[in-house]
Amino acid sequence: MTDPNRRPAISHLTDKRSKASLSRVVRKVEFPLKAAETPEGETPLPPNTGANYETDWARRYASRVTRRLALATLGKAVIQYYANPTIRGLDRLHDLDGPAIFAANHQSHADTLVMLTSMPAPWRHKAFVAAAADYFFGNRTTGALSALFIGAIPIERTSINRNTIDKAVTLLRSGWSMVIYPEGGRSPDGWGQEFRPGAAFLAKQAGVPVVPVHIRGTFDILRKGRNWPKKSKAIVNFGRPLEFAEEDNNRRFTRKLQAAVESLADETATGNWFAARQRAHTEDSPGLQGPDTAAWRRRWVLSENRDEQNETSRRWPYL
């Protein structure tokens, strides 16, 4: 039985609704915590994020030295620990002179560090990376870190942005090499995706060759959706540079580039360069996309291919 003389609790001390949280206060406060509104009649400045992020400062001397030291020390150590990459095909680049576009398949975020630490020194030290504007340049912090440590520039994935294209072409013409992933995004399941014509367009506009590159093993290191890497074995295979011929158009050159990467993937998987070249000549190289079947079947075939590759060593052709 309740005591009729008992005083009720003081409501304003116990009612949670009356307590103003810090987040509510911050949301209500405008300037200086929030940018002031543009005066009426004035055109607002474009945001310094996404495709509008300016990266010229990342190619100045101090930034280049910082990036070079970071890649040679921490970047190299991290990649050696987690990926321990085997690098193949460097002899195919002996005749390459000047800037080039290095176009590789894209399995995970580990690809960029693997590429930048595996490329030969003349191109590695003067390279920039085509990075998704919506992901790497979504805010100023990630944009600054991406530009400084991997030399990234923003590239639109879903639309054509003349400013970003002109920036890439200008850098290529001025002696910088480019790392690009023609698939336009990371693999969702370990298999490749159809190449987009961006690399072909840039090669034609800048007049530079394209080096096909196949990267294997990075999906196991840092697959899409994983927040922390795990150790695996990576293989980077460089192909012969491709020139944009007079009879080529963007679509034809893109097919040629994808076929070259598929041949490199075949060579890496089988360890037999001669057989891979024969299949490439007859246009019978296994595709990067994998079987068109259920997701579980695609994962099973991929794991089966990995087991076969682990048991396969490089073999010289039988002559």
Discrete helix count: 13
Multimeric organization: single chain
Q: Tell me the span between the first and last alpha carbons.
A: 102 Å
The CATH architecture comes to: 3-Layer(aba) Sandwich
Cα-atom Rg, whole angstroms? 25 Å
Keywords: Acyltransferase, Transferase
Protein name: Phospholipid/glycerol acyltransferase domain-containing protein
Pfam family, one: Acyltransferase
InterPro entries: Plipid/glycerol_acylTrfase
Can you walk through the features of this model?
It holds the Pfam family Acyltransferase. It comes from marine metagenome. With 319 residues, this protein is an alpha/beta fold. It has a single domain, classed as 3-Layer(aba) Sandwich (Glycerol-3-phosphate (1)-acyltransferase). Helices cover 41% and strands 10% of the residues. It contains 13 helices and seven strands. The protein has helices spanning 11-14, 22-28, 61-82, 110-118, 121-124, 133-136, 140-150, 162-173, 198-206, 218-221, 250-270, 273-281, 295-310; strands spanning 86-88, 101-104, 127-132, 152-155, 177-180, 210-216, 235-238. The protein has a seven-stranded mixed sheet with strand order 1-7-6-2-5-3-4, sandwiched between helices. Helix 3 packs across helix 4 (110-118) and helix 8 packs across helix 9 (198-206). The radius of gyration is 25 Å and the shape is globular.
